[in-house]
Amino acid sequence: MISRKTLFYLIATLNASFNPDYDFSNCRAEEFSREPSVKHVMDAVDSTFFSSSARQEYNEMKSQLWSAIDSHISLSDCEIYRFNSDSNFDPWDDCSIWAYYYFFYSKKLKRIVFFTYRAVRYVYIT
Fold first, then answer.
1. Which CATH number does 4-120 carry?
2. Rounded to a whole number, what is the distance in angstroms from the first to the last CA of the chain?
3. 32-48 burial, b for 16+ CB within 10 Å, e for fewer?
4. How much is the CA Rg of the chain, to the nearest whole Å?
5. Known InterPro entries for this protein (predicted)?
């Protein structure tokens, strides 16, 4: 179960990130899930990229990515949430094949790192 305060922070982060085009104020707690561990999230991100055309680029920068996130939020002290958007609240729905939204929340630092990534359709223009 997600606390009201945490839910407010997550929704506020979404609103700040996608303002003014989207309003997430009506999101419900059920649309967010707590991730079991940092390793679980890292493995999920790795798996997604390794099965995509961005495999090589991601492999070259993944250690820098996780180090940068860790330096700002201290991953070992975080709660991690995932936004499980439905089409009513997904800002990337119209142009993405898939999209993921993670929130690394440090109560101790009073800080959230919002991490989102997506795959877009490549459109050939002739």
1. 3.40.1000.50
2. 50
3. beebeebeebeeebeeb
4. 15
5. Maf1, Maf1_sf
- Count other C-beta atoms under 10 Å from residue 81's C-beta: 23
Q: pLDDT tens string for the chain (126 positions)?
A: 799 999 999 999 999 998 888 888 988 999 999 999 999 999 999 998 888 778 888 889 999 999 999 999 999 999 999 998 765 555 655 666 778 899 999 999 999 999 998 877 766 676
- What is the spatial distance between Cα 80 and Cα 62, in angstroms, rounded to a whole number? 18
pTM of structure: 0.86
What's the CA gap between 55 and 68, in Å, rounded?
A: 19
